[in-house]
Specification:
The protein is mainly α. It has one domain. It has seven helices and no strands. The termini are close together.
Length: 167
């Protein structure tokens, strides 16, 4: 494996690790700090240098997804942190992986929504409480949905697809 490919894989791994931190933060505080989206945004040029990923398609995906997410934010259907995280994940996805990102994000979000509508969420909340995961327990008992978890899952799927690319 060449040094360029290894360097790109390290950058992609950092992208995925930051997304995991974003998901955990969203579960704990229902907030995705600006620093998370900025870190992903500033990390992207390194990926663009190391990989054949089309930068223009990433910028277009960033603009389109960001505009749609802003409309959802304006209607009160999505938080500001979710908008920024979704747009920056679309930047990484580009045209090549945007479908994967949208499908995984939507599926994980739908599963989370179904869980929140289920009576079984209370049993799961109790199980989380017993193993010391009070934050997850409170989320399951509450009414809000930390959609950053679904966005992070979509971004991690993109990271996996990017890492699997052959050069």
């Amino acid at each position: 494996m060449s040094n360029w490919i290894l360097a790109d894989r390290l950058v992609i791994s950092a992208f995925a690790a930051i997304l995991v931190m974003a998901a955990i933060g969203d579960v704990r505080r229902f907030r995705i700090p600006n620093a998370v989206s900025l870190a992903l945004l500033f990390l992207y040029p390194l990926h663009a240098v190391f990989s054949p990923h089309a930068v223009l398609s990433g910028l277009i995906a960033f603009a389109v997804v960001g505009a749609v997410a802003l409309v959802l934010f304006a209607r009160g259907w999505m938080g500001g942190g979710d908008v920024k995280l979704m747009a920056v994940c679309a930047l990484w996805a580009g045209a090549e992986q945007i479908g994967l990102f949208v499908v995984v994000t939507a599926l994980v979000g739908a599963l989370m929504s179904l869980l929140m509508m289920s009576i079984h969420r209370f049993s799961l909340a109790l199980a989380f409480e017993r193993v010391g995961c009070a934050h997850a327990s409170r989320v399951l008992i509450g009414r809000a949905l930390p959609y950053g978890v679904a966005i992070a899952a979509g971004g991690i799927a993109v990271a996996a697809a990017l890492a699997a690319q052959t050069y």
